[in-house]
Amino acid sequence: MKNRLFLNVIITLTLLINCQWSIVNGQYRPTAENLKARSEFQDKKLGIFLHWGVYAMMGQGEWVMNNRNINYEEYAKMPAGFYPAKFDAEAWVKAFKDAGVNYITFTSRHHDGFSMFNSKASEGYNIVEATPFKRDVIKELADACAKYGITLNFYYSHLDWHRLDYPLGNTGRQLGRPTDQQNWKSYYKFMNDQLTELLTQYGPIGAIWFDGVWDHASDAEPYDWQLEEQYALIHKLQPACLVGNNHHKNLNPGEDIQIFERDLPGQNSAGFSGDMQVSNEVPLESCQTMSDVWGYNITDMHFKSTKELVQMLVHAAGLNANLLMNIGPQPDGQLPAESLKRLKEIGEWTRQYGETIYGTRGGLVTPRDWGVTTQKGNKLYVHILKWQDRGLFLPLAGHKLSQAKLFRDGTPVKLVKAQTGYLLELPEVPTDIDTIVELIVD
Ligand code: GLC
Protein backbone atom coordinates (compact mmCIF):
# COMPACT_ATOMS: atom_id res chain seq x y z
CA MET A 1 0.00 0.00 0.00
CA LYS A 2 2.73 2.33 1.12
CA ASN A 3 4.71 1.33 -1.91
CA ARG A 4 1.83 2.13 -4.17
CA LEU A 5 1.41 5.56 -2.59
CA PHE A 6 5.11 6.21 -3.04
CA LEU A 7 4.86 5.12 -6.65
CA ASN A 8 1.91 7.40 -7.23
CA VAL A 9 3.78 10.33 -5.75
CA ILE A 10 6.74 9.59 -7.99
CA ILE A 11 4.52 9.29 -11.06
CA THR A 12 2.72 12.53 -10.25
CA LEU A 13 6.02 14.32 -9.70
CA THR A 14 7.43 12.99 -12.95
CA LEU A 15 4.30 14.08 -14.76
CA LEU A 16 4.52 17.50 -13.22
CA ILE A 17 8.16 17.89 -14.14
CA ASN A 18 7.49 16.60 -17.61
CA CYS A 19 4.32 18.56 -17.82
CA GLN A 20 6.27 21.15 -19.74
CA TRP A 21 5.73 23.96 -17.39
CA SER A 22 7.39 26.00 -19.99
CA ILE A 23 6.52 29.26 -18.34
CA VAL A 24 8.21 29.53 -14.98
CA ASN A 25 7.76 32.81 -13.13
CA GLY A 26 6.51 34.36 -16.31
CA GLN A 27 9.67 33.34 -18.13
CA TYR A 28 9.84 30.85 -20.96
CA ARG A 29 12.12 27.95 -20.18
CA PRO A 30 12.38 25.43 -22.98
CA THR A 31 12.05 21.85 -21.79
CA ALA A 32 14.78 19.26 -22.28
CA GLU A 33 12.75 17.77 -25.14
CA ASN A 34 12.50 21.13 -26.78
CA LEU A 35 16.23 21.79 -26.47
CA LYS A 36 16.94 18.39 -27.99
CA ALA A 37 14.56 19.16 -30.85
CA ARG A 38 16.34 22.46 -31.45
CA SER A 39 19.65 20.75 -31.85
CA GLU A 40 18.14 18.09 -34.12
CA PHE A 41 16.57 20.85 -36.16
CA GLN A 42 20.00 22.41 -36.62
CA ASP A 43 21.39 19.08 -37.78
CA LYS A 44 18.76 18.85 -40.53
CA LYS A 45 20.05 21.88 -42.43
CA LEU A 46 17.83 21.63 -45.50
CA GLY A 47 14.06 21.97 -45.58
CA ILE A 48 11.46 22.51 -48.28
CA PHE A 49 8.85 25.22 -47.88
CA LEU A 50 5.58 24.45 -49.64
CA HIS A 51 3.14 27.23 -50.47
CA TRP A 52 0.06 25.47 -51.72
CA GLY A 53 -3.58 26.46 -51.58
CA VAL A 54 -6.56 27.11 -53.83
CA TYR A 55 -4.76 30.26 -55.02
CA ALA A 56 -2.53 27.97 -57.11
CA MET A 57 -5.43 27.78 -59.58
CA MET A 58 -5.01 31.45 -60.43
CA GLY A 59 -1.29 31.09 -61.01
CA GLN A 60 -0.45 34.46 -59.49
CA GLY A 61 1.00 33.59 -56.13
CA GLU A 62 -0.52 33.27 -52.66
CA TRP A 63 -1.31 36.98 -52.35
CA VAL A 64 -3.65 37.06 -55.37
CA MET A 65 -6.77 37.63 -53.27
CA ASN A 66 -5.35 40.81 -51.79
CA ASN A 67 -3.40 41.96 -54.84
CA ARG A 68 -6.40 41.78 -57.16
CA ASN A 69 -8.92 42.87 -54.56
CA ILE A 70 -11.02 39.77 -55.01
CA ASN A 71 -14.27 39.98 -53.09
CA TYR A 72 -14.11 37.53 -50.18
CA GLU A 73 -17.38 35.82 -51.17
CA GLU A 74 -16.22 35.40 -54.76
CA TYR A 75 -12.88 34.01 -53.64
CA ALA A 76 -14.71 31.53 -51.43
CA LYS A 77 -16.21 29.97 -54.56
CA MET A 78 -12.79 28.82 -55.72
CA PRO A 79 -12.46 25.74 -53.51
CA ALA A 80 -15.48 24.19 -55.27
CA GLY A 81 -13.29 23.95 -58.37
CA PHE A 82 -10.15 22.69 -56.68
CA TYR A 83 -9.35 19.16 -57.75
CA PRO A 84 -5.59 18.53 -57.82
CA ALA A 85 -5.96 15.20 -59.58
CA LYS A 86 -2.23 14.52 -59.78
CA PHE A 87 -1.45 15.12 -56.13
CA ASP A 88 0.70 12.31 -54.82
CA ALA A 89 2.11 12.98 -51.36
CA GLU A 90 4.49 10.09 -51.61
CA ALA A 91 5.94 11.28 -54.92
CA TRP A 92 6.57 14.73 -53.41
CA VAL A 93 8.17 13.41 -50.27
CA LYS A 94 10.30 10.92 -52.18
CA ALA A 95 11.60 13.71 -54.42
CA PHE A 96 12.51 15.71 -51.29
CA LYS A 97 14.15 12.73 -49.64
CA ASP A 98 16.24 12.03 -52.74
CA ALA A 99 17.35 15.66 -52.72
CA GLY A 100 18.68 15.34 -49.18
CA VAL A 101 15.86 17.36 -47.64
CA ASN A 102 15.15 16.58 -43.99
CA TYR A 103 11.97 18.52 -43.28
CA ILE A 104 9.09 20.25 -44.99
CA THR A 105 7.10 23.27 -43.91
CA PHE A 106 3.63 23.20 -45.42
CA THR A 107 1.12 26.05 -45.55
CA SER A 108 -1.70 24.66 -43.42
CA ARG A 109 -3.59 27.93 -43.79
CA HIS A 110 -2.28 30.98 -45.60
CA HIS A 111 -3.51 34.57 -45.51
CA ASP A 112 -6.47 33.70 -47.77
CA GLY A 113 -7.86 31.82 -44.78
CA PHE A 114 -8.43 28.51 -46.55
CA SER A 115 -7.42 25.47 -44.52
CA MET A 116 -5.54 22.80 -46.43
CA PHE A 117 -6.42 20.20 -43.80
CA ASN A 118 -9.38 18.57 -42.16
CA SER A 119 -10.33 21.34 -39.78
CA LYS A 120 -13.59 21.28 -37.86
CA ALA A 121 -12.66 24.68 -36.46
CA SER A 122 -12.73 26.19 -39.95
CA GLU A 123 -16.49 25.70 -40.20
CA GLY A 124 -16.38 24.00 -43.55
CA TYR A 125 -13.76 26.25 -45.20
CA ASN A 126 -11.21 23.50 -45.71
CA ILE A 127 -9.96 21.12 -48.36
CA VAL A 128 -11.96 18.13 -47.10
CA GLU A 129 -15.34 19.84 -46.89
CA ALA A 130 -15.18 22.62 -49.47
CA THR A 131 -13.52 20.95 -52.45
CA PRO A 132 -14.60 18.06 -54.67
CA PHE A 133 -11.16 16.58 -53.94
CA LYS A 134 -12.20 15.91 -50.34
CA ARG A 135 -8.79 14.54 -49.37
CA ASP A 136 -6.81 15.75 -46.37
CA VAL A 137 -3.52 16.48 -48.13
CA ILE A 138 -1.82 17.14 -44.82
CA LYS A 139 -2.75 13.69 -43.56
CA GLU A 140 -1.34 12.19 -46.73
CA LEU A 141 1.83 14.25 -46.40
CA ALA A 142 2.15 13.30 -42.73
CA ASP A 143 1.96 9.61 -43.64
CA ALA A 144 4.51 9.97 -46.44
CA CYS A 145 6.82 11.97 -44.18
CA ALA A 146 6.62 9.29 -41.50
CA LYS A 147 7.44 6.65 -44.10
CA TYR A 148 10.52 8.49 -45.41
CA GLY A 149 11.76 9.85 -42.09
CA ILE A 150 11.10 13.49 -42.92
CA THR A 151 9.90 15.97 -40.32
CA LEU A 152 6.66 17.82 -40.98
CA ASN A 153 6.35 21.47 -39.96
CA PHE A 154 3.38 23.77 -40.43
CA TYR A 155 3.25 27.30 -41.72
CA TYR A 156 0.31 29.07 -40.05
CA SER A 157 -0.94 32.55 -40.89
CA HIS A 158 -1.87 34.88 -38.07
CA LEU A 159 -3.80 37.10 -40.43
CA ASP A 160 -6.90 36.05 -42.32
CA TRP A 161 -8.64 37.62 -45.32
CA HIS A 162 -11.67 35.37 -45.12
CA ARG A 163 -12.97 35.38 -41.58
CA LEU A 164 -15.10 38.28 -40.50
CA ASP A 165 -13.97 38.01 -36.89
CA TYR A 166 -10.34 38.73 -37.83
CA PRO A 167 -9.59 42.29 -36.76
CA LEU A 168 -8.61 43.95 -40.00
CA GLY A 169 -4.99 45.07 -40.35
CA ASN A 170 -3.02 46.71 -43.14
CA THR A 171 -3.84 44.14 -45.79
CA GLY A 172 -7.05 42.75 -47.26
CA ARG A 173 -8.93 46.02 -46.90
CA GLN A 174 -10.57 45.99 -50.33
CA LEU A 175 -12.15 42.56 -50.21
CA GLY A 176 -15.68 43.68 -49.43
CA ARG A 177 -15.69 42.30 -45.92
CA PRO A 178 -18.15 43.87 -43.49
CA THR A 179 -16.22 45.32 -40.58
CA ASP A 180 -18.82 45.08 -37.85
CA GLN A 181 -18.13 41.47 -36.89
CA GLN A 182 -14.50 41.76 -35.94
CA ASN A 183 -13.92 39.92 -32.72
CA TRP A 184 -10.44 39.18 -31.50
CA LYS A 185 -11.62 36.77 -28.82
CA SER A 186 -13.42 34.51 -31.21
CA TYR A 187 -10.64 34.74 -33.81
CA TYR A 188 -7.99 33.90 -31.21
CA LYS A 189 -10.03 30.91 -30.08
CA PHE A 190 -10.38 29.79 -33.70
CA MET A 191 -6.60 29.92 -34.20
CA ASN A 192 -5.92 28.00 -31.02
CA ASP A 193 -8.53 25.41 -31.95
CA GLN A 194 -6.85 24.96 -35.32
CA LEU A 195 -3.40 24.73 -33.76
CA THR A 196 -4.79 22.06 -31.46
CA GLU A 197 -6.09 20.17 -34.49
CA LEU A 198 -2.75 20.48 -36.26
CA LEU A 199 -0.90 19.22 -33.21
CA THR A 200 -3.20 16.32 -32.41
CA GLN A 201 -4.27 14.95 -35.80
CA TYR A 202 -0.97 14.40 -37.60
CA GLY A 203 1.55 12.87 -35.20
CA PRO A 204 4.72 14.64 -34.08
CA ILE A 205 5.16 18.05 -35.69
CA GLY A 206 8.60 19.62 -35.93
CA ALA A 207 7.62 23.28 -35.83
CA ILE A 208 4.86 25.82 -36.18
CA TRP A 209 5.99 28.64 -38.45
CA PHE A 210 3.88 31.73 -37.91
CA ASP A 211 3.53 34.56 -40.35
CA GLY A 212 1.48 37.72 -40.57
CA VAL A 213 1.70 39.63 -37.28
CA TRP A 214 3.20 42.45 -39.32
CA ASP A 215 -0.37 43.04 -40.55
CA HIS A 216 -0.85 45.18 -37.45
CA ALA A 217 2.62 46.70 -37.43
CA SER A 218 1.36 50.21 -38.07
CA ASP A 219 -1.41 50.24 -35.45
CA ALA A 220 -1.28 53.27 -33.17
CA GLU A 221 -1.09 50.98 -30.13
CA PRO A 222 1.09 47.87 -30.28
CA TYR A 223 -1.26 45.01 -31.15
CA ASP A 224 -1.51 42.29 -28.55
CA TRP A 225 -1.52 38.96 -30.41
CA GLN A 226 -1.33 37.05 -27.10
CA LEU A 227 1.58 35.13 -28.50
CA GLU A 228 2.95 33.79 -25.24
CA GLU A 229 -0.26 31.99 -24.38
CA GLN A 230 -0.47 30.60 -27.88
CA TYR A 231 3.11 29.40 -27.80
CA ALA A 232 2.50 27.82 -24.39
CA LEU A 233 -0.44 25.91 -25.87
CA ILE A 234 1.84 24.55 -28.59
CA HIS A 235 4.51 23.56 -26.13
CA LYS A 236 1.91 21.93 -23.92
CA LEU A 237 0.47 19.87 -26.76
CA GLN A 238 3.87 18.92 -28.17
CA PRO A 239 6.81 20.02 -26.02
CA ALA A 240 9.32 19.23 -28.75
CA CYS A 241 7.48 21.31 -31.34
CA LEU A 242 9.50 24.41 -32.13
CA VAL A 243 7.88 27.79 -32.52
CA GLY A 244 9.08 30.27 -35.11
CA ASN A 245 7.55 33.56 -36.15
CA ASN A 246 8.32 35.48 -39.32
CA HIS A 247 7.67 38.83 -37.66
CA HIS A 248 10.93 40.39 -38.88
CA LYS A 249 11.79 41.47 -35.32
CA ASN A 250 13.97 40.18 -32.51
CA LEU A 251 12.82 37.07 -30.68
CA ASN A 252 9.81 37.03 -28.40
CA PRO A 253 9.60 34.79 -25.34
CA GLY A 254 8.50 31.30 -26.33
CA GLU A 255 10.12 31.30 -29.76
CA ASP A 256 12.54 28.48 -30.46
CA ILE A 257 13.77 29.40 -33.95
CA GLN A 258 14.76 32.71 -35.49
CA ILE A 259 13.53 33.17 -39.05
CA PHE A 260 15.08 35.31 -41.78
CA GLU A 261 12.95 35.95 -44.85
CA ARG A 262 14.78 35.91 -48.19
CA ASP A 263 18.11 36.66 -46.53
CA LEU A 264 20.83 34.89 -44.66
CA PRO A 265 21.20 35.81 -40.99
CA GLY A 266 22.93 39.15 -40.68
CA GLN A 267 22.07 40.29 -44.20
CA ASN A 268 19.24 42.51 -45.28
CA SER A 269 19.12 42.62 -49.05
CA ALA A 270 15.36 41.96 -49.17
CA GLY A 271 14.62 44.63 -46.57
CA PHE A 272 12.82 42.41 -44.02
CA SER A 273 15.64 41.90 -41.55
CA GLY A 274 16.68 45.48 -40.76
CA ASP A 275 15.31 45.30 -37.21
CA MET A 276 16.77 41.93 -36.39
CA GLN A 277 19.82 40.98 -34.41
CA VAL A 278 21.09 37.49 -35.05
CA SER A 279 20.38 35.37 -31.99
CA ASN A 280 23.04 33.07 -30.65
CA GLU A 281 20.55 31.30 -28.43
CA VAL A 282 18.19 29.60 -30.83
CA PRO A 283 18.52 27.83 -34.19
CA LEU A 284 18.43 30.04 -37.24
CA GLU A 285 16.55 29.47 -40.46
CA SER A 286 16.65 31.38 -43.69
CA CYS A 287 13.74 30.92 -46.11
CA GLN A 288 14.25 31.51 -49.79
CA THR A 289 12.31 31.09 -52.99
CA MET A 290 13.51 28.82 -55.80
CA SER A 291 12.03 31.23 -58.34
CA ASP A 292 10.87 34.77 -57.54
CA VAL A 293 7.75 33.98 -55.55
CA TRP A 294 6.29 31.60 -52.96
CA GLY A 295 2.94 30.35 -54.29
CA TYR A 296 2.69 28.96 -57.85
CA ASN A 297 3.04 31.71 -60.42
CA ILE A 298 2.43 30.80 -64.02
CA THR A 299 4.53 33.62 -65.43
CA ASP A 300 7.49 33.30 -63.09
CA MET A 301 10.17 31.25 -64.80
CA HIS A 302 12.98 33.04 -63.04
CA PHE A 303 14.39 30.01 -61.25
CA LYS A 304 17.69 30.19 -59.44
CA SER A 305 20.32 27.83 -60.77
CA THR A 306 21.23 24.68 -58.89
CA LYS A 307 24.63 26.21 -58.26
CA GLU A 308 23.02 29.24 -56.60
CA LEU A 309 20.76 27.04 -54.48
CA VAL A 310 23.57 24.75 -53.35
CA GLN A 311 25.75 27.74 -52.52
CA MET A 312 22.85 29.20 -50.53
CA LEU A 313 22.68 26.00 -48.50
CA VAL A 314 26.42 26.06 -47.90
CA HIS A 315 26.36 29.75 -46.94
CA ALA A 316 23.51 29.11 -44.53
CA ALA A 317 25.37 26.20 -42.93
CA GLY A 318 28.48 28.36 -42.54
CA LEU A 319 26.35 30.91 -40.74
CA ASN A 320 25.01 28.16 -38.51
CA ALA A 321 21.59 28.37 -40.15
CA ASN A 322 19.20 26.08 -41.99
CA LEU A 323 17.93 26.76 -45.48
CA LEU A 324 14.19 26.46 -46.08
CA MET A 325 13.87 26.42 -49.85
CA ASN A 326 10.46 27.13 -51.31
CA ILE A 327 8.44 25.33 -53.98
CA GLY A 328 4.98 26.42 -55.16
CA PRO A 329 3.13 23.28 -56.33
CA GLN A 330 0.87 23.51 -59.37
CA PRO A 331 -2.94 23.51 -59.24
CA ASP A 332 -2.96 19.94 -60.58
CA GLY A 333 -1.03 18.80 -57.51
CA GLN A 334 2.34 18.32 -59.17
CA LEU A 335 5.60 20.00 -58.34
CA PRO A 336 6.79 22.21 -61.20
CA ALA A 337 9.27 20.47 -63.50
CA GLU A 338 11.77 23.29 -62.93
CA SER A 339 11.71 22.58 -59.19
CA LEU A 340 11.98 18.83 -59.68
CA LYS A 341 15.00 19.27 -61.91
CA ARG A 342 16.74 21.35 -59.26
CA LEU A 343 15.80 18.92 -56.50
CA LYS A 344 17.39 16.12 -58.49
CA GLU A 345 20.61 18.06 -59.02
CA ILE A 346 20.73 19.18 -55.40
CA GLY A 347 20.39 15.48 -54.48
CA GLU A 348 23.41 14.62 -56.59
CA TRP A 349 25.37 17.23 -54.67
CA THR A 350 24.12 16.35 -51.18
CA ARG A 351 24.79 12.64 -51.74
CA GLN A 352 28.41 13.44 -52.42
CA TYR A 353 29.02 16.33 -50.04
CA GLY A 354 26.17 16.21 -47.50
CA GLU A 355 28.53 14.94 -44.81
CA THR A 356 30.16 18.38 -44.74
CA ILE A 357 26.79 20.07 -44.14
CA TYR A 358 24.35 17.87 -42.15
CA GLY A 359 24.95 17.77 -38.44
CA THR A 360 27.61 20.49 -38.64
CA ARG A 361 27.71 23.91 -37.04
CA GLY A 362 29.27 27.11 -38.28
CA GLY A 363 33.06 26.55 -38.30
CA LEU A 364 36.02 28.27 -36.68
CA VAL A 365 36.52 30.73 -39.50
CA THR A 366 33.55 33.07 -39.78
CA PRO A 367 32.19 33.65 -43.31
CA ARG A 368 34.57 35.28 -45.75
CA ASP A 369 34.25 36.59 -49.29
CA TRP A 370 35.59 33.27 -50.59
CA GLY A 371 33.13 31.10 -48.66
CA VAL A 372 32.46 29.59 -45.26
CA THR A 373 33.55 26.87 -42.87
CA THR A 374 31.54 24.19 -41.13
CA GLN A 375 32.58 21.88 -38.36
CA LYS A 376 31.68 18.55 -36.84
CA GLY A 377 33.75 17.20 -33.97
CA ASN A 378 37.40 17.72 -34.82
CA LYS A 379 36.73 17.99 -38.55
CA LEU A 380 36.78 21.41 -40.11
CA TYR A 381 35.38 21.80 -43.60
CA VAL A 382 36.52 24.76 -45.63
CA HIS A 383 33.94 25.51 -48.33
CA ILE A 384 35.52 27.54 -51.10
CA LEU A 385 32.74 29.00 -53.20
CA LYS A 386 34.54 31.67 -55.16
CA TRP A 387 38.28 32.14 -55.24
CA GLN A 388 40.80 33.02 -57.92
CA ASP A 389 44.02 31.68 -56.38
CA ARG A 390 45.60 28.41 -55.40
CA GLY A 391 46.55 29.77 -52.01
CA LEU A 392 43.93 30.44 -49.35
CA PHE A 393 44.66 31.82 -45.91
CA LEU A 394 42.88 30.67 -42.76
CA PRO A 395 43.30 33.08 -39.83
CA LEU A 396 43.55 30.35 -37.19
CA ALA A 397 46.70 31.29 -35.33
CA GLY A 398 45.76 29.76 -31.99
CA HIS A 399 44.79 26.37 -33.44
CA LYS A 400 46.61 23.27 -34.55
CA LEU A 401 45.51 22.05 -37.96
CA SER A 402 46.59 18.90 -39.76
CA GLN A 403 45.74 16.39 -42.48
CA ALA A 404 44.37 18.79 -45.08
CA LYS A 405 42.82 17.10 -48.09
CA LEU A 406 40.16 17.68 -50.71
CA PHE A 407 36.91 16.17 -49.49
CA ARG A 408 36.05 15.23 -53.08
CA ASP A 409 38.74 12.60 -53.60
CA GLY A 410 41.22 12.83 -50.78
CA THR A 411 43.88 14.70 -52.81
CA PRO A 412 46.33 16.11 -50.22
CA VAL A 413 46.29 19.86 -49.76
CA LYS A 414 49.51 21.46 -48.59
CA LEU A 415 49.18 23.18 -45.24
CA VAL A 416 51.73 25.88 -44.50
CA LYS A 417 51.90 27.29 -41.00
CA ALA A 418 52.40 31.03 -40.73
CA GLN A 419 52.53 33.28 -37.68
CA THR A 420 48.97 34.49 -38.17
CA GLY A 421 47.37 31.25 -39.26
CA TYR A 422 47.62 28.68 -42.03
CA LEU A 423 47.96 28.81 -45.76
CA LEU A 424 46.21 26.14 -47.79
CA GLU A 425 47.90 25.36 -51.07
CA LEU A 426 45.28 23.84 -53.31
CA PRO A 427 46.20 21.51 -56.18
CA GLU A 428 44.44 23.90 -58.56
CA VAL A 429 42.42 27.10 -58.64
CA PRO A 430 38.98 26.06 -57.27
CA THR A 431 36.22 25.91 -59.88
CA ASP A 432 33.64 23.54 -58.31
CA ILE A 433 30.28 24.77 -57.02
CA ASP A 434 31.96 24.27 -53.66
CA THR A 435 35.54 23.06 -53.34
CA ILE A 436 35.74 21.52 -49.91
CA VAL A 437 38.94 21.06 -47.94
CA GLU A 438 38.72 18.79 -44.93
CA LEU A 439 41.08 19.38 -42.01
CA ILE A 440 41.59 18.01 -38.56
CA VAL A 441 41.62 20.54 -35.73
CA ASP A 442 43.30 19.51 -32.50
C1 GLC B 1 5.79 36.78 -46.50
C2 GLC B 1 4.58 36.67 -47.40
C3 GLC B 1 3.98 35.33 -47.39
C4 GLC B 1 4.96 34.21 -47.43
C5 GLC B 1 6.08 34.43 -46.45
C6 GLC B 1 7.13 33.38 -46.57
O1 GLC B 1 5.43 36.90 -45.20
O2 GLC B 1 3.59 37.56 -46.98
O3 GLC B 1 3.09 35.22 -48.44
O4 GLC B 1 4.27 33.07 -47.06
O5 GLC B 1 6.64 35.67 -46.65
O6 GLC B 1 8.30 33.74 -45.94
Care to describe what's here?
- This protein is an alpha/beta fold.
- The model is unreliable at 11-21 (pLDDT under 50).
- The strands form four sheets. It has an eight-stranded parallel beta sheet with strand order 7-6-5-4-3-10-9-8, sandwiched between helices.
- Helix 5 runs parallel beside helix 11 and helix 8 (184-201) packs parallel to helix 9 (227-237).
- It has helices spanning 2-18, 32-44, 64-67, 72-75, 89-99, 127-130, 137-148, 184-201, 227-237, 306-318, 337-353; strands spanning 23-24, 27-28, 46-50, 103-109, 151-157, 207-211, 242-245, 258-261, 284-289, 321-327, 361-362, 371-376, 379-384, 391-394, 401-406, 414-418, 421-425, 435-441.
- Bound molecules: alpha-D-glucopyranose.
- Alpha-D-glucopyranose is lined by residues 51, 62-63, 211, 246, 261, 287, 294.
Overall pLDDT score? 95
- What is the domain total for the residues? 2
| CATH homologous group name of the largest domain | Glycosidases
Distance between the termini: 58 Å
Bound compounds, please? Answer: alpha-D-glucopyranose
Number of helices: 11
What is the number of E strands? 18
Rg result: 24 Å
Helix content, binned percent: 25-40%
Summarize this structure briefly.
With 442 residues, the protein is of the alpha/beta class. It is 28% helix and 20% strand.
